[in-house]
Amino acid sequence: MKKQLVSGLMMAACLSLFWNCGSDSPSNTESCTGETCLDNNGGANGEPDGGQGGENNPGTSSQSQDQNQNGSSVSGTSSNSQGNGSSNSGTSSLAEESSSSFGKVQGGVADPTGYPVASYRNLLSGGASGKGWNSRYWDACKPHCSWPGNVDTTSEAAYQAIYTTAKNCNINDVEIPTYTLKYDVQPNWMGFTGITSSCKSDERGGGAAGAFTCTDMVPVAINDTLSYAFVAGPKGQGCGKCYHFQYDGHFFNESENNKPKETHKALTGKHVIAMASNIGHDVDPSSTQFDMMIPGGGVGAFDALSLQVGADMRTSVANDGGFITSCQHKLGYDAHLEEYQNCVKEYCSLYFSNLPNMLQGCNWFADWFMAADNPNFYWEEVECPQYLIDKYMTSINTTIHNNIRWRDDWSTYKEGDELKTLECTDKGCTCTEELFAEGVCKFN
Asked: Residue 396 and residue 122: Cα distance in Å, rounded?
């Protein structure tokens, strides 16, 4: 999905002597060149980088800084690393096994019906890039890849090549911008900042007024052996990439005294193609760990899910590991598959009955993923299916430049509402008395 790569206004702005980038103060004297002028960090505000427990600002849009990651579930059957995964510089066409049918999901609205089913090959017979394992999370925070500082904005072409930024939504699951103009732009200076994550309630525009994970980024079953999902990829893998996993019936750090359970064995041979919408900065460095986005998978260190569902998801269920961990605490670690599945689905109904996507994705973990706790897989990098691309890409920040005005509260924004803008040129933005009174710009 490549688009025409034109950003004349951005280029002109950055080449202008009047546009100083990378600061929230017009007194900044550093010059910038090309489209690397895009700045999403909001200066000293220390805005978060969103999902996966981001506390730190990702910086300018052409760089990615280290952030903390939450939600990596290492619970129940898992405690240490098993094996290393190697990176794959290329992609696979997944040509060996395929289906001519189209994906159908009953119930919910995260529905891949009408999309061709991706082809995939048998990695258990060889040819994988390495071995890895899945932890799980759903903290509802703004995804890492929704921050332009975590994606490549060195040029419009680079921005389009990695599918722009990952979309984000408000608390009512309506898509909102991933970034806007700074909230206090000045006539001779123009900057950008990411919409504050819902996981940062102490920041301007955060909490219930901020950005959440869109609920249609839940896992979906395409058929009995293939599903699509989103993950936090290991540090260095990057946003907008896709990976093929095939499960081998084992799990993270099994041992002679801690062998695979019915859940892991039931997952054997199944495939998941997952797209990276978050960056895992605290995943196990000695293995290839992909933290899968699964409703009910645990909120970890950061939690906006409690705001969204209206229940305390830290103390009512296991904070790390989520529903299956709570079920292990109830049933023990050697219960039958059906017992774990039924237990997880009871939690799904309890917390997500009014959120159809979340309910669907939570039940997927029980029914398709076999409630498997931290399962192992063989993996490779692959081309992204169009379904995942369409769920990932923002439909608002479609180019690296925009004139969308900052607003402190996005909770009331509804689909179809006008996105207010400022009149901006290569020399900055116009500030009127009315706009000044609204607090969206300053005079010199």
From this structure: 38
